[in-house]
Design goal:
Layout: H1 2-23, H2 29-68, H3 70-85, H4 94-107, H5 111-127, H6 137-147, H7 155-163, H8 173-195, H9 202-223, H10 227-255, H11 260-277, H12 279-294, H13 297-311, H14 322-327, H15 332-346, H16 351-362, H17 366-377, H18 385-408
Amino acid sequence: MLNALWIGFFLVAFLIALGKLLFLGDAAVMAALVKALFDSSKTAFEIALGLTGVMALWLGVMKIGERAGMLDVLTRGLAPLFRRLFPDVPPNHPALGAMTMNMGANMLGLDNAATPLGIKAMQELQKLNPSSDTASDAQILFLVINTASVTLLPVTIFTFRAQLGAADPTDVFVPLLITTYIGTLVGLFVTGFFQKLHLWNRVTFAYLGGATALIGGLVAYFGSLPAAEMTRQSSILSNVVLFGLIAVFLLMAVKNRVNAYEAFVEGAKDGFHTAVTIIPYLVAMLVAIAVFRASGALDLIMGAVRGAVSGLGFDARWVDALPTALMKPFSGSGARAMMIDTMQTHGADSFAGRLASIVQGSTETTFYVLAVYFGAVGVRRVRHAVACGLIADLAGILAAVGMAYVFFGSVA
């Protein structure tokens, strides 16, 4: 899918530019395409280079939390809930441990740890699957929760926002947290409806009710504030929570006699490697998007959508973040490039730049996760997994738009 999209960006850009040259006499359009090739490839490298320090910082912090046992704390905290959500999985089965560890890793933004743990969980669930080529209920629910999982530390998004000049890179944290929770909750209830799960037991209600009350309280409180005060207080809360988590990691490291400095250095090395690794992907996608935009193709599409939305009497500012939303279910790197392009074009602190950041963190790459997790165990018939995953994605995207207007509606 990504290959077809990538090739399509170039071919559509060339055809539209050729049409402008031949029929409209636009002699500059081809030069604009070539200039976009060189400028965007240079920009992609500069962005990746600038990411190195910030990525090293945050992955170093994550490594401290991992070594200090934060993952184990989250695992123990989620275990009672998971026993109710997956009634077909026997108590103390290895699948429960792998699933809770995977969710804990996702919450902490530990993508490198989350993926192998997710595959391990899917393999354990496959041992309980009565039909080896058909996804079981437990496998589908695990996948849907995984694709819409709440992330406590969306490090990559903060990093890109910092690199692209955001005054406060973490000011999207609170709306992003609310958005991911809504997407996860919708995915859980939709899948529960398909599978006729009994979600209204005391344990599940305590977990979901408590989390919903907290998220609802945040929305109600911030919604009652004037726009400027809401932005100020949400920024303060985001920074307190994020730095507070770092302090918790360090205190846990002291308590558990973990060498925090060595853990940080090890994680920082991974951060450096990650920053270098993404250069080819950034160049590939940013160049393709740049020529697509330079040809006028992206403006034509967005203009048509914006005109339709405005014609119905609605605010159309959210349309500028639509490319990120449409790309997200198919390609994480593609959606990331769309987010970067939106922030470069409109500004990291613009409404569109902030919304694209929230959308990028609102869901996981559904089709990629589905292919990797089910492919690892040879499942070919996925039943209602795709429908439930995409409904959760849609809920996350709609929630992202809503939260962007609540928190940043006064921003141009």
